[in-house]
Design a protein that fits this description.
The protein is an alpha+beta fold. It has six helices and five strands, in the order H-H-H-H-E-E-H-E-H-E-E. It is 39% helix and 17% strand.
Length: 207
């Protein structure tokens, strides 16, 4: 069959057919951001967090925190002499705050620091910023940041946001032990299939 470029009916049919196909084609599927993929999660764990929290750096962070707690708690000690305490009228003690965040920032001994790290394509650290500081202590933050020297991460996979936020939580040993005990005594959750096939959770009664 010979096709003549002057045959307008052929080209009109071709355009109409293409328009019809386009009208009934499936909508494009938008890909999830790279930061939500398993590759990004694996990098955050193995290529980033494991290097930020090496045993040597963990030890330095702990030393910084211990020094900070000692200093904060020493400021809470009463300054009055026993003689003046004896003369002072008895007053009803105010209720203690239930959480550390209810305390003024300058009185907290537990909290978190959130840093945002900017990385190069090869994993080299460009800079970092303290995005959130619940403890408000310059000495502590400077001590923590001293451990960031010579910090280098693995090269991030293509498509991953190279601005990475990381929260460092600081808690005293007694708080951690209490949380562990609470988890042990809490009722475990069991997976229960529903008739519709949708999975739901319910508490397993403790004996």
């Amino acid at each position: 069959m010979n096709i003549s470029f002057g045959d307008n009916s052929f080209w009109l049919g071709l355009v109409a057919g293409a328009a019809l196909i386009y009208a009934f084609r499936e909508k494009p599927v938008l890909l999830a951001p790279a930061g939500e993929t398993k590759i990004a999660s694996a990098y955050m764990r193995n290529g980033f967090a494991n290097l930020l929290m090496t045993p040597e750096r963990r030890k330095q962070y702990s030393m910084c925190y211990e020094s900070f707690v000692k200093e904060r708690e020493s400021l809470k000690q009463p300054t009055q002499s026993p003689a003046s305490d004896a003369k002072a009228p008895h007053t009803t003690a105010e209720p203690n705050p239930t959480t550390q965040l209810e305390l003024p920032a300058t009185e907290r001994t537990e909290g978190s620091l959130t840093y945002v790290f900017q990385l190069k394509e090869n994993g080299e650290l460009i800079e970092y910023d303290l995005a959130n500081d619940e403890l408000k202590d310059i000495r502590l933050t400077k001590c923590i940041q001293n451990a960031f020297k010579n910090l280098r991460f693995l090269p991030p996979p293509l498509g991953i946001n190279r601005y990475i936020a990381y929260e460092m939580s600081f808690k005293k040993d007694e708080t951690l032990r209490k949380e562990i005990e609470e988890k042990k005594t809490s009722s475990p959750l069991t997976l229960v299939p529903t008739p519709s096939g949708v999975e739901s959770f319910e508490e397993k009664p403790s004996h």
